[in-house]
What does this fold into?
Amino acid sequence: MNAEGGAGGGTNIHVEFEEMITISNKLKNICEIYIEGVQPEIKKLAESDFYKAGKALKTVESYPEILGKTMELFDNYSMAAQIVNYAMEKMYETDKELQKLYQIQK
It folds into this structure.
């Protein structure tokens, strides 16, 4: 991946398809960690008798909000994975179209 100045002072970012695959796989792995590990543990914490019994209730009043924010991270990673996959799909489609045009011009 590299960046260079573009027209009008903007920045063009060039990403190789293989880099996109790596990014997609890493985001997928993070999402799997949330689905298989974090999410079930958050559910256990939220449903714990410790919270319902009122022990140290003042201390844990903010836990539901904290747990919810933790799951918002999953939403963000999931959305990022969808965007990367969409970009890869569009790159692939564009490559196929360019390949057809190139073959026609031969």
